[in-house]
Amino acid sequence: MQKRGKTALTLVGFAVMLAALLALMVSIGAGKDGFDIDEFFTYGLANSYQQPFLSTQTGAWISGKAFSDYLTAKGHAHEYLNVYENQIADVHPPLYYLFMHAVCSAFQNPPFTKWTGIGLNLFFFSLTQFGLLLLSARLLSDGEKLELTPPALLPGLLYGLSAGAASGVVFIRMYAMMTMWAVWLALALVELFIHGQTVWRMRALAAVLIAGFLTQYYFVILACMLCGVYFFARLARREFETAGRFALWCFFALALAVGLFPWCLNHIFGGYRGRGAIESAAGARLNDMIRWFKILWQTLDAQQFGGFLLALVLIGAALAFWPLKKAGQGLKRGAAFSLWALLACGAYVLVISVVSPYKVDRYIFCVYPLVTVALFMLFARGGCRFGSRRSSACLLACAVLAACGARVNRDQQVHYLYPGDSAYVAACEENAALPCVLLGTNDMTQNTLELAAFERVYMLNADDAQGVAPALEALDEKPDGFILFERYHDEANVETVLRETGLESAELLFEHQYHIYWVH
Question: What is the pTM of this model?
């Protein structure tokens, strides 16, 4: 009865904690005022019908609605084969985009909103939290039976309150989903190590590996690190048959994932991102690797641990592995997991620092919860050195990490909010009745919402400033002015436009990728 009471209390506590964290994430998401170009690609690749990337015909007037239609599923909802085909043309696997299309298809009013993407990420965040609860409970349980106790809530709370977790939620890409699979992969491996490799557990492992692969190719790198540590741990215990069976299941999962999306081979080995990663790895020098790794390490440290990550690892390891007279089996497992997770996560960050096109946080979001759990377990086990009970040791671990987290909340901002970007769209909406001419069709995806505000848009190449005057003359009534999007900030283009159209002034309204002028 006492165990049932603790389980019920833990589940109630988890529901309350999750509700509070979701409310916090929603309040942060409400402050998201703009979008990264990759977020527009998320909506476009998930929803645009037979048009993976935004492209419009040059030399013709079109409605601004063509730009907003690129982002929505209106008129072609639940076209999942189309999403799959869009991803063939992209550099990422399709699973996240299929989910995104399903959400956008279900909620078409309003037709475009940040909340469809943030809402989907909140769903994945919730599953990440549940996975953290089970993983923490498993590591804290003394016996083989899983015991849900209140201390198991603490790692999820520490992770959920960080700037890194919030950044992953408000960034509308596949990284929140990838983070979820990372946590569930760690849980699957821990269960396999404790309870053995039954058929159903191996099937669960394969399912997570396949889903992670079809979410983001970088997941394969993390999976290799986590599964590699498990594999060599089995070899170290001379469990050769178990290790071999595990490796066969992993290769089977990889083969099945490739079979489900065979174009991944071209993405990885033939696409520009894949070739870029290979070339970067082949040409990387040691000083480059150290510098890149330091950038990502500092990013993880700042967003999750307030600059104290190295100190936490060293102190936690010293406390946890100092000779103890008494330590519960669960806490010993927790310390072993900590070494395993920190080693795998460190190796992942090192590889990502070499192969990733940009040294930014999105590529390492997936290790944030794992490192948090690892450090929590180090301090929880270390607390037993002083004769503390398990609950007291867990509270000590929480207090130490929370103190570091307080510095995160004070010094580190949530990324991907883009405050002030809505002013650009508002400025375009104020001038929506004027014709809009765009010089330079490259990279216009970033300005999709701004172009969507206009009733009429004319597309020209960047070197075709002479084509502006004929475009305006083709209108039924020649306007007194128009809006000009000039991509490469070339004053000669503006001068040509003024000379050819006979207008007098080009007033800069704002800069956002393009220089946007009111020409009159």
Answer: 0.93
